[in-house]
Amino acid sequence: MRQRLSSEPDRYRGRRRVPTPPRSRYAVVGLSAFVGAGVVALGAASNLPDAKTVNPTVLQNLENASVTTKALNDRSADANRASRGQTRNTVKVAPEQATQDLWLLPLEDYEFTAPFGVRFGKLHAGIDLAAPEGTPYKAVHAGVVTQAGYLGGYGYAITIRQADNIEVIYAHSRRLLVQVGQQVTAGQVIGEVGNTGYSYGTHLHLEVHLNGTPTDPIVFLRDRGVDIKLGVDSPFAGASAVS
């Protein structure tokens, strides 16, 4: 081997590297840092209150608030019910008061078949309302029965006198359910539809007389809130009906 002269440059000078530490050493360092951070975090967490643990005083306050809220809601509901009851009571009237000035339809279900006016050369002094035989009919207004029985061409008929010289006649009945001198109320069932007397088919013949003179029941009743053709009567219909 040739011996290097002292004057020759060292070809390896400056090229020597520092040894690289083994990878396992980095892993140990990182793991130590992670464990240390965990220990610190656990130590800090040990000073915080447990999230599942609630102060008993807070629980008691919440319970009291819940009970108070329920009591207030119940009281409000009771007040609303009382208010609704008072509203109903304000519109509720005694049967006598409800029917004192009440006018109603004589039938609940019928067919308007003949108007007031001249027919066959004679005055048809009322209106005809067709309904099945035996259908109950009612008084259109309160009054006193002045006639109840067979009345010639009217067949079995009822006459009821109201105030102000008003009379209402119900004719061609199959059956009468009131007697002379009886006081009746609006909506009270007083007879049954029939085909007696001078009648063409089962129907109720209804007449209204003012001071003894026949008048058109359609117009008369409409002025009092009862529409025969539309089948509409007072909203208090049936308030004190007596069967």
How would you sum up the global shape? Answer: globular
Q: Unreliable stretches, pLDDT < 50, 5 or more residues?
A: 11-18, 24-35, 37-54, 81-93
Calculate the terminal CA-CA distance, rounded to whole Å.
147 Å
Helix content: 25-40%
CATH fold name of one domain, please? Glucose Permease (Domain IIA)
The CATH architecture assignment of one domain turns out to be Distorted Sandwich
Query: How large a portion of the residues is in β-strands, by DSSP E?
Result: 25-35%
Q: Whole-number average pLDDT?
A: 74
Q: How does the helix and strand content classify structurally?
A: alpha+beta
- Please report the total strand number as a whole number: 12
- Classified in CATH, the superfamily of one domain is Glucose Permease (Domain IIA)
CATH class of one domain: Mainly Beta
Radius of gyration from CA coordinates: 51 Å
What does this molecule look like?
The protein is of the alpha+beta class and 243 residues long. Among the domains are: 57-92; 111-222, Glucose Permease (Domain IIA), CATH 2.70.70. It is 29% helix and 26% strand. The chain has four helices and twelve strands. The strands form two sheets. Strands 1, 4, 5, 6, 7, 8, 9, 10, 11 and 12 form a ten-stranded antiparallel sheet that branches. A two-stranded antiparallel sheet has the order 2-3. Strand 7 and strand 8 form a beta hairpin.
